[in-house]
Amino acid sequence: YQRNKRWWWKVQLPGEKKCKNRPLKPVGARFATTDYSVACEVAENLWQQAVYRNEFDGRDIEVTHIASLTARYLHYTDGYYTHGKEPQNIRYSLKPLTALYGCLPVAEFGPLKLIDLRDHMIALDWSRKLINQRMGRIKRMFKWAVSRQMVSPVVYQGLMTVEGLKYGRSTARENPKRKPVDESHVYAVLPYTTGVVAAMIELQLLTGMRPGEMVAIRPCDVERPEGAIWHYCPEKHKNQHRGIKRIVAIGPRGQELLRPFLLRPEDSYCFSPAESEKMRRKKLTEHRKTPNSCGNIVGSNRKETPARKPGVRYDSTSYAKAVKSAITACNKVRRAEAKAAGVEPDLVPKWTPYQLRHTAATKVRKEMGYECAGATLGHTNMSATAIYAERNQGLADEAAKRFG
Fold first, then answer.
1. Domain count of the chain?
2. How far apart are CA 106 and CA 279, in angstroms?
3. Which one of 129, 160, 191 terminates a domain?
4. CA distance 79 to 81
5. What's the mean per-residue pLDDT of the chain?
6. Closest CA to 170 of 205, 107, 126
7. Residues 243, 363: one domain?
8. What is the rounded CA–CA span in Å between residue 107 and residue 125?
9. SS3 state of residue 105
């Protein structure tokens, strides 16, 4: 309907409980449009965006536009990927697609539209590998839609002709290669974190576990024969859907680190953020500069019901944040010491928990070869191990001395 010669729409969008009056404003406009055809296009876009946001039961949505297709696919992925971050990664991948082409009919989305979307991702300063990953997820959505007879196979075949970006052949940004972290940098930050996080860091460095496997250790998942190597079998892991069993061997030093954290109920997680926070507060109290007779009484300024409480267990993100905080605290002390001495500070470079896996792989490969490194990392393919274990340039140099 029109109000003051401008088009409005009274509608109950999917997911809403009642009708609302909405001005049909084009993107970037302050007021509703006076053009009927533009108003129809804006209304259609509003409807498709609402369908995408609410993600109803997939069987209730008729696939006509890109937004309705993504809603159906997201509903499917939530049930298909029972653990891990893949549903979240798929949402991130489909977000620019829906923003640009949400109201476009599915049959009209062809290779040129996909190339335009890829150029949009490059303009957002995404890295080349990230763009290729997200383009691959978009193509898989259309493959799924073809298998459900929602989309013509011709659409999917056309999209498959768009190749991924190649190294040095595009303007997309390149991320630096993830490399092993020096062990001296790892042990340098341990005094600046809690005992819980320090044990996690050192145990991961010794075993080469993935961060997600590290944070999920429970006493019931660890086989502990007396006087022998322990075996940790994660409840969930990356290759579980392929029928591959993951076994992490834990040696004497790892057993020494893990043993104190096994004294809890069998189904509880060993590494608790609540315990870590308790250690952190105790450490702050011990290093308190204000006398106890002055200032706040210890514990008096804490909320009884804080908005955010420590979780039951760490995840890979919170674990990485704890490592980052330890590096920051270490460098803060080093800067202060260097300033007092009048010299340049020797700072610890930034590193992430996943680099510990690379360090462990490289160390095992140098001492015992690729096959042992692959077994340590849980790989069934040696080409995957080569990604983690740095090449032994020393062997090549020795060959050059002998034969070159």
1. 2
2. 55
3. 160
4. 6
5. 84
6. 126
7. yes
8. 29
9. strand
228-285 residue pLDDT tens: 888 888 888 877 777 778 888 888 898 999 999 999 999 999 999 988 888 888 887 7
Whole-number Å distance between alpha carbons of 179 and 332: 24
First to last CA, the chain: 85
Q: Please say if the pLDDT value at position 198 is more than 50.
A: yes
Q: pLDDT tens digits, residue range 362-398?
A: 888 777 776 677 777 776 665 555 555 555 555 555 5
Place of tokens 């697609």: 97
CA torsion sign for 256, 260, 264, 268 is: negative
Q: What is the span of the domain harbouring residue 133?
A: 2-160
Residue 400: predicted pLDDT: 42
Domain assignment present for residue 300? The answer is: no
Q: Where are the alpha helices (DSSP H) in 241-315?
A: 252-258, 273-286
Same domain, 222 and 358: yes
In a domain, 31, yes or no: yes
What is the C-alpha to C-alpha distance for residues 32 and 369, in angstroms, rounded to an integer?
68
Angstrom distances, CA of residue 161 to CA of 33, 122, 144, 155, 372 = 39, 19, 17, 10, 40
- ∠173-177-183 over CA atoms, to 5°? 145
Round to whole Å and give the CA distance between 215 and 270.
Answer: 8
Task: Report d(CA 404, CA 399) in Å as an integer.
Answer: 7
Residues 245 and 381 in one domain: yes
Question: What's the CA angle centered on 357, arms 351 and 363, to 5 degrees?
Answer: 105
In the numeric block, which tokens belong to residue 104? Answer: 């476009």
219 DSSP assignment: G
